[in-house]
Structure formats: structure tokens, C-alpha cells
Amino acid sequence: MPETLFAALVLGVLEGLTEFIPVSSTGHILLAGHFMGFESAGKTFEVVIQLGAVLAVMLVYAAQLWTLFAAAPRDPQARRTILSVLIAFLPAVGIGVLAHDFIKTILFESPRLIAIMLILGGVVLLVVDRMAFAPRFDDAMRLPLGVALKIGLFQCLAMIPGVSRSGATIVGALTLGASKRAAAEFSFFLSMPTMAGAFAYDMWQNRAVLDSGSMTEIAVGFVAAFVVAVFVVRGLLGYVSRYGYALFGWWRIIVGGLALVALTLQG
């Protein structure tokens, strides 16, 4: 296997492992790519393979999604659930489009910033996990629209690589009264339009620089992310319901710390 395809496979597995846990999949992929010497045209690979992980969520929730959309024409609660996800998605659309070039050309090229954000995010996750929030919402499909919008605003923090999209939405949901399980599940639902939109926009923006080699790398990473994410999604809700998010906070701090040491040694 050519070196670039092996790197794409490794990064795809890493994406599948980290997309839905609050450790920043993009931060991990950008740091791993930096140390592996992997470069993608327009940093498109790092964004597009996330759709593979999102398709894994859609597969796991296929029956539930089918029931939801089938019931929408006659069930006000189903329509309200769909609307809550769309409302939460809207802030990311505006900021993502306006700040796209800055994010891709400046923030994505700053491995030291990513490492620092991993550490800071880990500290926040540990603090939030230990706080005794009284859950007011146990069902991710019944969050009030105002709460959904606020969670969407939290998601925008993840425009900074290393923050974590799932981490930002989960922390936001927890502080707004969602249970640990509902916070993780709403993050799953919100990932679908968010990452599908990011995929479509990034592919369009970088259509001129993508060649057959880039598309092959993307395909390898995409499939790897999909397969691994299926297993992660199936096990994550049960884990966080029992143990919370402390493990992921320590994970972030350790990875960020090691990355800072490596970057310092690298000069």
C-alpha cells in the first residue's frame, strides 16, 4: 500500500474513533497528519471523511430516523424534533460560511493552537463532568427549541480545531439541563446536517484542486471512518450514561500535552 494511502487509512480509523467522543476528531487528525507528513489538497480530506462517520450514525439510527420522518406530516412532536435539530444547525451555517477561509488557512495550520485547545477543552470537560447538574431533559428528541438554539451556538466554538464539535455540543447541553445520555444523543443528531453541510461546501470550494489521487485518499479514509464509527456509536451512549465524560477529559489533556512536547522537540 502506498504511503499516502496508508496514512489515509490510519487517519480514517482515527476519525471514526474520535468523531463522536468529545476529544476533537479534527484536532487529532490534523496533529496526526502533521507528524506523519500527510498533506491534503485544501485540507479537504480532513473535513470530507467526517461524513463517513456521520453515515455510521445514520445507519445506527436508521429505524428511528425513518419513523421520525414518516410521522412528521401528522405528528407535531416529530416536526418539532426535526425543527430543533435544524435550529441548532443554523448558527454553524452562518459562521462556517463566513469564516471558512480563515479556519482552513490559519486555524487548520496551527498545530500548537490545536494542542492547547485539546488541553483546555479537557480541563473544561473534567470540571463540567464533576458538576452536579440536575437534568431537566432526558429525551434528546424533546429539547425545547430555545435550548436547541443555544446548543447550536455552543457548537460554533468547534470552528477552532481542537475544541471538538461533539465536546462543545455535549458541554452546552449538559449546562443547559440535558442528561448525559440526551446530551450525547442530541450531538449525534446535530452532527448529521452539520457534517453533511460541511462536506458539500468544502467539496464545492475545493473542486478545482481535487485530483484522482486526492479522491482515492478520501475514499479510503471515508470507508475506514464509517466502519469504525459504527462500533463507537453503538457503545458510546451506554458508556457515558454509566461513567460520564471524565475519561475523555484526561484523554484530551494527555494527547495535547504530548503534542506540545513533540512540537517543541520538533522546533
**In which range does the helix fraction lie?**
over 70%
Provide the residue-averaged pLDDT. 88
Number of helices: 12
Oligomer: single chain
The ordered H/E elements are HHHHHHHHHHHH
* Separation of the first and last Cα atoms: 31 Å
Number of strands: 0
The Rg value, from CA coordinates, equals: 18 Å
Q: Mind describing the biggest β-sheet?
A: none
Strand pairing plus helix content: what structural class? mainly alpha
Q: What portion of the residues fall into strands of 2 or more residues?
A: under 5%
Return residue spans where pLDDT drops below 50 for at least 5 consecutive residues: none
Name the overall outline.
globular
What does this structure look like?
77% of the residues lie in helices and 0% in strands. The chain is globular and about 55 Å long. The chain has one domain. With 267 residues, the chain is mostly helical. Helix 2 runs antiparallel to helix 7, helix 4 packs across helix 11 and helix 6 packs parallel to helix 8. It contains twelve helices and no strands. The protein starts with a helix and ends with a helix.
